[in-house]
Structures
1.
Amino acid sequence: MNEPDRSKLPIRRNAFGGAAARTLQGCEPDWALIDHVHPPVGAPNVLVVLIDDAGFGNPSTFGGPIDTPNFTRMAEGGVRYNRFHVTALCSPTRAALLTGRNSHTVGFGSVGEFSNGFPGYTAVLPRDCAPLPRVLRDNGYSTAAFGKWHLTPDGQQGPAGPFDRWPNGWGFDYFYGFLGGGASQWDPCLAENQKIIGTDPAFYDEDNPYYLPDAMADKTIQWLHGVRAQDATKPFFAYFSTGCSHAPHHVADSWAAKYKGRFDQGWDRMREEVFARQQQLGVVPPEAELTPRHEAFPAWDDVPEPLKAFYARQMEVYAGFSENADYNVGRVIDAIDELGELDNTLIFWIWGDNGASMEGSPTGTFNELTMQNGIPLTDEMQLQLVERYGGLEAWGGDMMDPHYSAAWAWAGNTPFQWGKQVGSHLGGTRNPMVVHWPDRITDAGGLRSQFTHVTDLAPTILDSCGIPAPDEVDGIEQEPLHGATFADSFTDAAARELHTQQYFESVGNRAMYKDGWWLAMRTERIPWVLTPAALQPYAPGVWNPDDDPTELYYLPDDFSQAHDLAAQNPEKVEELRELFWAEAEKYKVLPLLATLGVFFGIAPPLPEVSTFEFRGDVENVLAGMVPRIYNHSYTISADLVIPDGGAEGVIVAEADHLGGFSLYVDGGRLIHTYSMMGVFLFRQQSDVPLPTGEVTVRMEFAADAAKPATGGQVTLFVNDQPVGGGRMEHTVPIRFSGYAGMDIGRDNGGVVDLSYADRKPFAFTGTIKKVVFDVKPHLALEDEHAVHLAAQHGQALHAINA
Amino acid sequence: MAFDEETIDVLIGGYLSKDAAMEDYESVLECGGYLHGAVVVTKSLEGELEVQQTDHMVREGAAGLGAVGFVVGLFAPPLLAATVVGAALGAGLGKLAHHRVADKLEEQAGATIPIGGAGLIVAYPHSAADTVEPAVTRAITRAVGEAEGHHVQALKGAIADAQAKLAQSQP
């Protein structure tokens, strides 16, 4: 067979090579016409594993305290990379990985939830940057993605699409996972291909409950078996992107219990222990120094003694959660091995799409959305809320959506400074990577120290598969790949370093790397602080980025960025600063802080739609697409048919007991429950039972003021007659949930009101004709603008923490 | 001060969990200081109200203490959950102080104690303050009121003072 022209995709079908006449007389078919495209001979299978929100110092494979036997197994059969880099945020790293181009160029300077009107921040993939799965698929690979996606704009995650922004549209034949930045591991609102399928029915099986990491591995193995059942030789590309170890940190207690007592020494001592092991393993060179603790992180010795168990439990659960991810990746690898294909499968396993996440703030939190909604809670408050929802032992279970303390995250990034969001430093950008490919790698257990970057994966995969990056896809000329192949380093520890220059930028924190030199330009805002005072220095007309403090490191001599050489090398500082601006211009990084533009008055237009109508069978409306009732007066009305003998069940419910609302009927009464992030819970009930027949019910919320988190009065109506109500002193200003969905006629997954938890999903036993939300605009346009801007602030806050 | 007058302190503590409130309640009972009474009021996530109390005040036969009023919700709705629970506590103390109004007070507490919240009220002679107050370590919000007078009068005044201080502490 002739080798096809792979430079233009889709690959053109060969011309008919047979003969056709008016009848079959003398005709000769060309059977190649019904064949499909084949990859180059010998092209390997490819498995990319991406762990979420984890640090260089987390896995035991790199000296960390978390047992990762499968990661180590791959390292001992392959090679470790100890100078591999990512962006400091989730979606940007994923976009760069899957396109081979810098994240801003492909519209992902920030995360999928935060799609805005600057080219580098649209969260919409340009058509001149065809992604890797599309290229592999068009070259004859079977492709599939499992787990976290986070590359679809927030408001485009329903049945109306558009689906070119979903995983199938990026070139994956099959997708099973979640579209957002995080998910409950117990009751995720799942997507399969182009449909939101909601919570798996196994969630309701108390004896054998659903758990996403297990299901991801199951689905991956099933998919591999299915592909092989059909075609014994077609190579596959599988992208296994865990929800772990992003918050919420969910894992069965049997996993967390393995770490009981192993973090009682605290984060300061843990860093020292990890650092010593890293040097023993050789993943950190002997001359490296452990960087000091920034004052933003409390010293362990300053933690009040009664709270130390609370903090230790946070890390025990995180560790168990992470080890479980290792276990499930191991199951997938075992399945490939069982197929007899491990030797010819090129595996990239990256432990963290960015550094470990500091978004739990110094206290850690029982519900990660409290921080994103701007609810300040002390560690004692957090502990009491933990007690409310089951105590320390329940941290990790389905009653909480926890995130650990920022100090644990910082320690997880040992030996570096900072972590996620901080693109200026290695704590946010340098993560462990292992490559395993027995057919090619002969130096099993070796260490590689070339400077490598997440944009290099696609070029390296294509290089290894013998597939060129296409010049043209669907008739559109393609932007060249920005990364460089490091395939030579598979077999040569001294292979020439090809990636010699790289910019970094996340939420204004930026760096410029060139030939070993690293210029760090960190905004002084602490990542988890977005108060007006913290933002004011970055306002347009106030902020001059060139006035930001600079730090200069020479990484070949200073692995951990412990020695700032800026003062001795002002010319190098200036050179790299200018180079950063040039790269920023070239790759669409500008304007800096576009992610936070809403804080400075750059908000999308006011929404024009204020009435939302749902028929009775609508389920699993994802979190970013529920009617935005926040900070407004609003009504929820429903047209019902109540049969003789009455009805019960949920009319409409959004999210769960950690933030959400439910309008339901129980004991014949209309009830409205509202959870302000699990901190405040409000419930109102009708004084009279519902009549039978055609009934209209309505819940009205009259906001006190046009301001975020406004309190107000709830009134319940049946057939337009007031039947009850009450005050809600505080409402959710930003977002009920990052991942739970809204349902009509039932409360899927974890429920809002725990009084009916034993009857979940508590489906309505009458008929719901429709449910209508009517969001009342504030009377003064300036108020409406102010609330809209506040909501957008919150959306940005949620987005950069997703 | 007249010979039959005294100074009573009332400590009101607000909590986000029953566990924390019960821990302080037990701690107060075991602190060794003399108590006029202590009551802890909790409301479960399902909305069920629970009251636990010592019987000191009942034992002292403080007839008429119901007239203290136990001013649930008399001040403006607070902004923090912790102060909400603090505000609610008068209801529990009311039940403790005067059984004739128990039903009403329980109803008030049911309406005022936030779901999932809890609160503690402790009444003690001012002379016991140095022993009692350090035993309360987990309250999210707390206020201590003080008043002089005849037993009932002092108690009423101390509660009112504590509640006023809670109200002032609202942001």
2.
Amino acid sequence: MTVTNIAARGIKARLNELASFARNTSHVLAPLFVVVTLALMANEAAAEIPRSAEGHPDFSGIWQTLGNADSGLEAQSARKDAPPHPGIVEGGTIPYKPAALAQRDKNFAARETADPAKQCFSLGTPRGVYYPEPFQIFQRDRDLTLLFQLSHRARTIHTNDSLHPEGPIGFWFGDSRAKWEGDTLVVDVVDFTADTWLDHSGNFHSEQLHVTERWSFLDENTLQYSATLEDPEVYTKPWNINVLLYRHREPNFQIIENTCYTLDYDQYYPVPESAQATPSS
Amino acid sequence: MSSILRNSISFSVAPKVTSIKQALLAAVVIATASSAAVAQQDEFREDTIHQVAAGDWKGAKLADGQPDVQGHWSNTIGNHNDFTGTARSPSRVTNPADGHVPFQDWARVKAEDFAAHLENPIRPEYVEPFARCAPGGPSKSFMWHGYEIRQYPDYVVFLFDSGTRVIHLDGKPALPETVKLWNGDSRGHWEGNTLVVDVNNVNGKARFGRSGEFVSADADIKERYTFDNEGEYFLYEAVYTDPSVLTAPMTVSIASKRITTETETDGWNNITFPVSFADPQHAPDIEAWERTCVENNGNHGDVAVEE
């Protein structure tokens, strides 16, 4: 992927030219020219990020979080299956209803087998974003396609002024319709299945989950991602998470098909190597 | 899950299989679903493989110069039930001319053994991997359900009902040989109206048809996707050379036809949905919904039983 950076344009040099022009001209429109030019330059300074032909931020690239949010969204001490980390939930804890909190604790106890990610199922939203495997964003004017390495499944974020289809629909990634608010992509996600988890600590949601995501550039190689999760069946109030996503810049880095749900039966399909090959039992 | 999704998509994908017992049931369910859907395929049923000649591209181009072939497409002939031909469809093997896979003797025995046990899979290896939701291998997805092509600078992306393929146009070297993948790893470039693709890294575990044809992880695979200038058809041709399994090169030819807003939805070839817009004057459009398989198919057809 060629990143079409808009290079910094030597703003200092151009300011000097502009000042020189203002001093040396007596044209009646000179003040207006200076103001307009300064405004354009201010815009350029904010625009040192990849942009699409339409002028929106271009999130194309391969992204991944650092940290261990997927092991548990809330802050945690060291566990046998995860290092300690500070959590990504604003305010520290997820505002569960009492019965839902009990369910989360049951999920946590059973996580080694009950976590859907262990079966390589589609990760869902927002989990795909902070799961510790890369995903690639392919961007067109009408949509963004997120291809996750785990499960090698695609999620589409529609940016074509379309509406959610009539639900409920049990999508694994939800149904995503988005609008640009300046340089921030705001995504409305509904129509979820209840079968995905939010992390490997058993945090969960119901089919009533409503996610509002905000995607923007921190700099050309870092995305700021935040999500608000609402679910009146499971939480007492909306809550927020925030993570940064880093661009993979290793030479020739790519997403590799990881349909790991096949690994349990791969053994039954040996590569036939010779006339003597016999079926496995 | 809503009844809409259940009716439109669930039957079109393979059952979730978590045990051998389920796997055995799954094979039967797939057979049933395949024949039930045939009656709905009229708009796409053709008797011959529509030919498209390689040449210049005169149609619309993307900003980076690629022919713009984006959108929804589907197979026009048969499916994996009749890969080498039946009364209702010609063989998709167009070289050799007899329509049969040029197997080495031992490999023919293996394929026939698989086919003989398909509906009585007394061992796990007789369950078609596709029925377990494994990706179909490079060619098979083109003769299955409808699919979508999306294009980007440096990439052509195929979103299949049975997996995703990314064709790299960016000149990256192929992955190391030790990485083996169901759908392989693809490098391509455009020659006029033809996308020319080298497929590497296949794991050699997929089957072309339910009659058991296969190649090994040693296969050399060269694909050509030739698009007509009217945007209505393209011809997929893949040449397989495999000294471990075949006695001669084999060409697989599959024709695809474009799905438009006018195409009738049939739950098989055309599994798109009309898009709703707030603006009632907005031009009509179609979209495909999320494509999953292994996740969605517990209690498939109310036949398979989850443990």
